[in-house]
Write a structure and sequence with these properties.
Number of strands: 8
Order of helices and strands: EHEHEEHHHHEHEHEHEH
Shape: globular
CATH superfamily of the largest domain: Metal-dependent hydrolases
Helix content: 40-55%
Largest sheet: 8 strands, mixed
Number of helices: 10
Length: 281
C-alpha cells in the first residue's frame, strides 16, 4: 500500500520527513508522497533519506488555487524550477501577513496570544492556522485544534482571514512546467453535490489537470467508486492518500486514514510512469 498525500513539519504536519519515511516503512507501506502546503523545502531531505533507506518516495506539494477554488497536488516536480519557487515565495508572504492579521483579531477578541507563541509551535519557517490553533490549545483556551477551527479560525468564523491564492490556470501550468503531474486534491470537499464536483473537474481538466484524488479519508465508498469511474471515462489518472498531519489530525493514521483508506502499489506506479513522461517532455 502507498500514501500519496502526507504533510511534514515543513508545513502543518508534526513529523519530519525522515520520521515520516521511517513510520511508513514500519507500517509496511511501499511509497509515500510528501505534499506540504505551498512549499518544497522538505523534499530534498526526504528524497536523500528515502534513497539511503531504499524506500520509494515521490516529491510533491499542495497548493490552494482560485478560479475555480480548489487544492492541487503537484507530483514529481523539479524543485529547482524558478518560476514555481517565485510563486511559492509570493504565497508564503501572503500567508505570513494572514497569520499576523489572525493573531491581531484574536487579541481583539480577548485571547492572550502573540506571533512568538505561534512560532514556538514549529521548528520550520512555514506557519499557518494549525500552528495558531496549537498555540491556543497550549494556552488552555481550547481542548483541541479542531475546536479552534470550528469556533474561531475556520471560514466564516470571527478570526478567519483569507489569503492570496494562485489561479487554477497558473497553478496547473506551474506544476506541469516544473515537470510534474497536476492532481485535484480531495474533490469530495468541494461540494456535497456530485454534479458540482464533476463541473469543477471538467473546468480544471480544460486547464490541464491530469488526475483526481479518488481515495481520501473523507470520501465515502460511493464517491470513491464514482471518482475512479469518472477518471477512467475522462482519461485522468486517479490517486489516493490520507492527508496525514500527525498530531495535528490525530484521528488520521498514515496509510489507512480512519481505517477506510487503501491505495494499492499500482496507483503509485501509474503516477510515477506519468511523471517520467511529463518530465521528459
Amino acid at each position: 500500500m502507498v500514501d500519496l498525500h502526507v504533510h511534514s513539519t515543513f508545513s502543518d504536519g508534526t513529523l519530519t520527513p525522515k520520521q515520516l519515511i521511517d513510520l511508513a516503512k514500519n507500517l509496511g507501506l511501499t511509497c509515500i508522497a510528501i505534499t506540504d502546503h505551498d512549499t518544497t523545502a522538505g523534499l530534498c531531505i526526504a528524497a536523500e533519506y528515502a534513497k539511503r533507506s531504499c524506500f520509494s518516495f515521490i516529491p510533491g506539494l499542495e497548493i490552494s488555487v482560485d478560479e475555480p477554488r480548489a487544492h492541487l497536488l503537484g507530483y514529481g516536480i523539479d524543485t529547482g524550477y524558478s518560476p514555481l519557487q517565485r510563486a511559492l515565495e509570493r504565497v508564503a508572504a501572503s500567508r505570513s501577513k494572514r497569520n499576523e492579521r489572525i493573531v491581531r483579531r484574536l487579541q481583539e477578541l480577548g485571547y492572550g496570544i502573540t506571533m512568538a507563541d505561534v512560532r514556538a509551535q514549529s521548528d520550520e519557517e512555514i506557519l499557518g492556522r494549525p500552528h495558531i490553533a496549537r498555540a491556543l490549545v497550549e494556552k488552555r483556551y481550547f481542548d483541541s485544534t479542531a475546536a479552534v477551527f470550528d469556533q474561531l479560525i475556520g471560514p466564516g468564523r470571527p478570526a478567519y482571514v483569507d489569503r492570496e491564492r494562485l489561479t487554477a490556470k497558473e497553478g496547473i501550468a506551474l506544476i506541469r512546467n516544473a515537470g510534474g503531474v497536476a492532481v485535484l486534491a480531495h474533490p469530495g470537499l468541494l461540494s456535497t453535490d456530485i454534479r458540482e464536483i464533476e463541473d469543477r473537474i471538467r473546468v480544471l481538466t480544460e486547464l490541464g489537470l491530469q488526475g483526481i484524488e479518488a481515495v481520501y479519508t473523507e470520501h465515502s465508498d460511493g464517491l470513491t467508486k464514482h471518482l475512479i469511474n469518472l477518471a477512467s471515462a475522462t482519461g485522468l489518472i486517479w490517486t489516493g492518500g490520507t492527508d496525514f498531519h500527525g498530531d495535528n489530525k490525530p484521528d488520521i493514521s498514515l496509510g489507512t486514514g480512519r481505517g477506510n483508506v487503501m491505495v494499492p502499489d499500482e496507483v503509485a506506479e501509474r503516477l510515477l510512469s506519468l511523471i517520467r513522461s511529463s518530465s521528459s517532455r
